[in-house]
Amino acid sequence: xxxxxxxxxxxxxxxxxxxxxxxxxxxxxxxxxxxxxxxxxxxxxxxxxxxxxxxxxxxxxxxxxxxxxxxxxxxxxxxxxxxxxxxxxxxxxxxxxxxxxxxxxxxxxxxxxxxxxxxxxxxxxxxxxxxxxxxxxxxxxxxxxxxxxxxxxxxxxxxxxxxxxxxxxxxxxxxxxxxxxxxxxxxxxxxxxxxxxxxxxxxxxxxxxxxxxxxxxxxxxxxxxxxxxxxxxxxxxxxxxxxxxxxxxxxxxxxxxxxxxxxxxxxxxxxx
Length: 272
Prior knowledge:
Strand order of the largest sheet: 7-8-1-2-9-10
Shape: elongated
Distance between the termini: 47 Å
Structural class: alpha+beta
CATH class of the largest domain: Alpha Beta
CATH superfamily of the largest domain: Aminohydrolase, N-terminal nucleophile (Ntn) domain
Helix content: 25-40%
Strand content: 25-35%
Radius of gyration: 21 Å
Number of domains: 2
Largest sheet: 6 strands, antiparallel
CATH topology of the largest domain: Glutamine Phosphoribosylpyrophosphate, subunit 1, domain 1
């Protein structure tokens, strides 16, 4: 009842998994990833041990193909399992047990492993793969979200939708640069989980994304006057003070220029 893609962005040194399923809280079972190690999706009649055990094998330097072979060989329930693995170098491999319910199958390529079971057709997995292949150069999180959208448009899970999740890891890329979790978002029960996941990702990007400094706007003239007036209206004497309360402090650096994302949020919060 699930389709997923495990993937690697070699330029950004990120690994991630995106998944959708007619299953409650799929993000608590399917996606696993560790920076400089790899990404794993375990599904169908999922074996949750494939996650930590597979990452341990990848950490030891095994390639994705060998990791899949070892995990499957040691599992008496292998016929009903589905597994996708991407290793530290972008090598990929998948397994679809013969006991998985139709349509079930997978497709792999450089930097990704796409798989699904109980699907309308194989076009869902094709859409995962083709969308990923066609989107190089964009952020991994956005590519993975686009993969889910394309897969659902192609037919998706034959039983419908319920939950979705997005996990992306990168060394020291998370909160306060003290976490390796760049993105960890889950929609556990929703009639349109992919749309909701994209909405939540938009909020995440607003709070934790980065606008190139060259795109910041000089805080001078009419714009400076406007910002000061809006801050006074909200009861703050500095942009930094308001941004801290609005959880946008990572997008503020000094008083000479303003991130357009911060300006938009300030205008929304101070509008009449």
